[in-house]
Amino acid sequence: MKMTKKTYLLLALLVAALLFPILVPNQYYLQILILVFIWTIAVYGLNTITGLTGQLSLAHAGFFAIGAYSLGLLTINAGIPFWAAFVLAIVITTIISFFIGIVALRTKSHFFAIYTMSVGFLIYLIIYKSELTGGVRGLIGIPNPAPIGPLTFESIQSYYYLMLFFLLLTIFFMYRLFHSLLGKTFVAIRNSEELAETLGISVMKNKLLAFVISAGLASLSGALYASYVRFLGPQMADIHVAFEILLYLLVGGIGTLAGPLIGTFIVVVLTQMLQFLEEFRMLVFGPIVVLLILFYPRGIVGGYLMWRAKRAKKQKVADANTTTKGENGNAVNH
């Protein structure tokens, strides 16, 4: 099989990611990348429902929190082994999202966004007020991931590789989804629900499936977050977290495969670089984000794909003109 430039680039990035903890054993940098990996998984979830099917869900932080708290409660209160609780946390969140989606997806456009924002706020209130979740005190003492054979997860390097594994698994899943018939069905619904229905596509069924997949990825991210920080507070379900996830997606490129990873990396790293400004960092960070969205309304990856498509179109026109001139010249000579 012929190796393309894109394949070489992806392999180089994979090797760089695998060697990073060895070449740069700085714990601060590793912590930043771990957070980037965790949040990127959540952004891929939002990209499924918002980027592919065109439904803006603002309940994403709520599903993220359900996944995190489910893992915490199942391991601490119920005493369930870590990996069994990890799987159950995702299952619980997807079941809850299924029933929420049945009602939410009966609304459309901004009504759907408002409804899901209300659901997200309701989840936040339940976590904040409930004694089961620890309320405002939060949940403390979530155990480390249990060893898998000889692999233990106690050092920051082991956490790095664990989060990288789940990120690569998510990217592979999203790649398959983007290039599958199901992914194309989601895009058809995003482009026109009426046209999709005339083609025999069950719009409600597919939107519900996208919603559940989105919530499942959010819960996966939340469970990983809980296992890493080992302390949970109700603020993780707050609406500002949902808007942060949406920001990562908008900066990277909504509806693109690489957008969630690039957007999350840029925003998280930029935020960390401006930490020295303390409360004034938003005065610098805000205008940078505004400029990015103004000049790249489709995100960085979306803008690059548009530029490449225009370039390919111009090249195609130039090649056609060259061929036409050559044929005209041959006709004159004859």
TrEMBL record:
Q: Which CDD domains did the record assign?
A: TM_PBP1_LivM_like (cd06581)
User: Does the keyword Transcription regulation belong to this entry?
Assistant: no
Q: What is this protein called?
A: ABC transporter permease
| GO cellular component term of the entry, any | plasma membrane
Q: Does the keyword Transmembrane apply?
A: yes
Lineage top rank: taxon:
Bacteria
Which is one GO molecular function term here?
A: branched-chain amino acid transmembrane transporter activity
What keywords is this UniProt entry annotated with? Cell membrane, Membrane, Transmembrane, Transmembrane helix
**Localization per Swiss-Prot or TrEMBL:** Cell membrane
How does it sit in the bilayer?
A: Multi-pass membrane protein
Query: Which residue spans traverse the membrane?
Result: 7-23, 29-46, 58-76, 82-105, 112-128, 159-178, 208-226, 246-270, 282-307
Give the species.
Answer: Alkalihalophilus marmarensis DSM 21297
Task: Report the principal subcellular site.
Answer: membrane
Against PANTHER family, the record matches this protein to: HIGH-AFFINITY BRANCHED-CHAIN AMINO ACID TRANSPORT PROTEIN BRAE (PTHR30482:SF10), HIGH-AFFINITY BRANCHED-CHAIN AMINO ACID TRANSPORT SYSTEM PERMEASE (PTHR30482)
